[in-house]
Amino acid sequence: MVDFAGWQMPVQYASIVAEHMATRRAAGMFDVSHMGRLSIGGPRSVEWLESLLTRRVADIEVGRVRYTLVTSDAGGTPIVLDDALVARDTDAPDGTPRMGLVVNASNRDRVVAWLEERVPAGVSFVDRTLETAMIAVQGPLAIEIVVGLCNTTDADRIRRLKNYWATSAVVAGQPAAVSRTGYTGEDGVELVVDARVATAVWEAIHAAGATRGLLACGLGARDTLRLEAGMPLYGHELREQTDPFAIGLGLAFNLDGRSFPGADHYAALQARQAGRCRVGLRFDSKRSCREGDALLQGDRPVGVVTSGSFAPSLGTAVAMAMVDRDVAVPGTPLDAVIRDTRAPAVVTPLPFYRRDRSPA
Hints:
single chain; Gyrase A, domain 2; Alpha-Beta Plaits; 3 domains; six-stranded mixed beta sheet; six-stranded antiparallel beta barrel; 19 strands
């Protein structure tokens, strides 16, 4: 157990590799209650979020989930406060929109403060992180394990749920908001339930899945899974002054005809396409590099590692890195400097692993 943004979190329950492979082959379950869960309502809620988020909200449908960034220009230089998921929940009986925002634990306090300072009349804003819990169940058997704890109607609703959509259901006898987003490269769902029933729901899922290979997973497996899936992490690939387009996050922006904090700045970055960009690196050995390790081509410094680890699905070490664009071509050999020793690597397309075919 370690402190993580003020939460006590498990790094591993037994073995990071075992938890990782259980998620790839059967199912893994993750307590992700540390993620911030924010509720926004009122007649102007959609309009307000449209003015603050990098992704379009005005046309979001009930049940739709979108990946977005939260940006700030309060200091004069635009920065990325966080990456987030924005969703439109079931509207109020009078048709008033209800919106949800999921943010990273490490950025929750400042995102909440940023939003609270800007709440206009006609918008309600509530941080529901401490009164709810969030459980992610990921892997090829995840959906069937969860729907086995639902009635027929709710089970069918969850099975039909598309990627980046959400619905409501009763799971293990408890009301839950169910989404299908994921951060592992596998299929699965995330359940948000009342914090008072979280232990009971967790234990019911664990009991239903344990005989089918499900394992509880900690932060270690969560990181190796997302790395294999080529997913950026705030604080590593994504930082306050990162060029989001250089790390492949152009999908998080709708720029045409929109205004949000720093919109002009990010439009200029999109047009410029300069500086270093994100790539994958694959090694011939299991020896992994770490964030901050230098990358060389010959004696020339060409980049820096942002995330690195042994990849259990591949049997070798991998990394993501920011490198000069002239060496970002797949197949380019580079050296990572790991504790004063060079380790050869090859630039590799991301992601390293895709569930729809063998590892890349």
